[in-house]
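Bumping with the actual sequence this time:
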Amino acid sequence: RASSAAGGSTKSGRRGGAEGVAEPDVGQEELDGMIEDFKQLVTLTMSRYHALAAHPHADEDCLDKADATMRRLQQRLRRDGLKKGCSWHGDEADMWLSMLAGGQKKRFKGLREVVRQVQVETRIIKQWRRRSSSLSSQQPLHQQVKVDLDSWEGFDAFHIEGACQHPLTQVFMSIWSSRSLDLFSRATDDGVLKFLRAVEGAYLDNPYHNRIHAADVTHAAYYFWSQLSAQPHMEGYFGEVDLLALLVAAAVHDVGHPGRTNEFLVKTQNPLALQYSDRSVLENHHAATAFMLLKESGVPLLDHRLVSPPQDAIKARIVDMILATDMTHHRRVLEQMNTEVKVQATTQDINKLVLEQHLLHMADVAHALRPAAQHRAWSDAVRMEFFAQGDEEKSMGHQPGPLFDRSKSPTLPKGQMGFLNFVVAPTWKPLEQILGPASKALDAHLWENMAMWEEMAKKEEEVAAAEQGQRSIMTPSRSRRSTVEF
């Protein structure tokens, strides 16, 4: 071997290295070092390849050449037996594998399996892109009512409800069709429709927490996702599996809601509160109900055609997003998102799990960013639901909170001013920052709605002052009897 390496023997030089390169004479330690270098290079190569494959404007020729090169490498590894010795170590590899596995570390048997996984995923992504392009001008699946998904101004969940009485199904299936999610999920279109009808049927006819709210939140979550995905600085950040998880979480986030708050359920020792130990009672109930319906329907909605992430990882993300809508977690969700925006060098570095929880939390209160007529309708609906709970509490001998007591509640304008200023605006701020120009129209509606409530509150105060002055005139003070004698 030493003479072959020194003399440049072509035959022996082609046994262990690339063709035309002489095989070096190395010891065990040097070989171990070379293998470690090889592992790190493979890790970096796979990471770069995966990022390029997911890029919406990836060079197809470049990807084809990479595929061909990896096939040759795969054949060479099979022939030479090196695949048996490939294992993965190092922080970068663990991070990449963790992302592929949805947060769960997973060890591959060797380079051949990694190459196969990336090739399969790339083929699916390419197929999805071609299908999306060809279907862009076609009528969305099961669409009875036109749903303008990409317009914030043109979307109105109340209008969809009035036209078909299935607003959630219409919105979800329109997104499913327009984004060709059937190429990722193994669920059939009819199966997804069956599941959505079951979910929509499980929403109760509450004034606020109903199927119309679910449709509105689903559209808002999708709109945030699509606008973020379209930003140049966010290219390649999201995948369609991320969209599927977000859409499912949004669609089911309030399913089975009884129209009463967690505090009410705990106070009255409702069976749900006892079942979930008084912790995020409704949110746990929504998640459990959703996955029970999914199981009963037999629809493999989360079973997708990619090698990873596993279904359990997607389910865990959906549950975490639903739990993040509990207002007791508002401060935590907001602080985590603000920290990510502040400390990360680029938006690409923002923790995706933190961002998606914040997206759904923001979508849940996004009616404050809708045009004034819609926002006013939602505000009236939630007030009606709150008062119904307060009435029930009084009938049970309990004292309702200020927002739920008809006789003590602040006026609607004052109540909404507090909600928008102290809940919505801070939640919207970090998302506004990363949305950039796409946030302008939504931000304008928020400030218009705040100005509307302020003007209404001012008029109420003027009317109250005028009424008080009128009562003073109509009820003059009693004059004292004179004690002076003449």
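The tokens above came from a reply further down the thread. The longest helix spans residues 440-474.
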